[in-house]
Amino acid sequence: MIEPAATVTDERRGGEHATVGTYIRVALVLTGVTALEVGVIYVRQLAPIVVPLLLAMSAAKFALVVLFFMHLRYDSRVLTLVFVGPLILAAGLAVALMTLSGAFLVFGR
Fold first, then answer.
1. Which residues contact 18 (CB under 8 A, 6 or more apart)?
2. pTM reported for the whole predicted model
3. What is the per-residue pLDDT for 11?
4. Would you kindly state where each structural domain of the chain is located, as residue ranges?
5. What integer is the mean pLDDT of 5-26?
6. Per-position DSSP letters for the chain, written without gaps between them
7. Can you give the pLDDT at residue 107?
8. What distance in Å separates the CA atoms of residue 74 and residue 10, rounded to the nearest whole number?
9. How many Å separate Cα 87 from the centre of its chain?
10. What pLDDT sits at residue 99?
């Protein structure tokens, strides 16, 4: 007898989505990181590294939103690569352009 076709994605991912508790925990983490972002602005000792610090925290929040609220964590790897590939290319291009224009220079030229 032929068994019903089960995709590799269903077996690998378990076919489950996040629970409400998971979404609440992710929302609390996002709220905490946002509070840290606001707090970092007011700490004068962090002035030399404030831009990279804010970029890193924003990237972490972006990753959480994409993984959980856009359900990319539960999609197939192909869709993940279709999303992440151009994103990495665009981020690299943005960093290259900011480096060329001197936007990352903290102490001036």
1. 26, 68, 73, 74
2. 0.67
3. 43
4. 17-74, 76-109
5. 67
6. -PPPP--HHHHHHTT----HHHHHHHHHHHHHHHHHHHHHHT-GGGGGGHHHHHHHHHHHHHHHIIIIIS-GGGS-HHHHHHHHHHHHHHHHHHHHHHHHHTTT-SS--
7. 57
8. 9
9. 10
10. 80
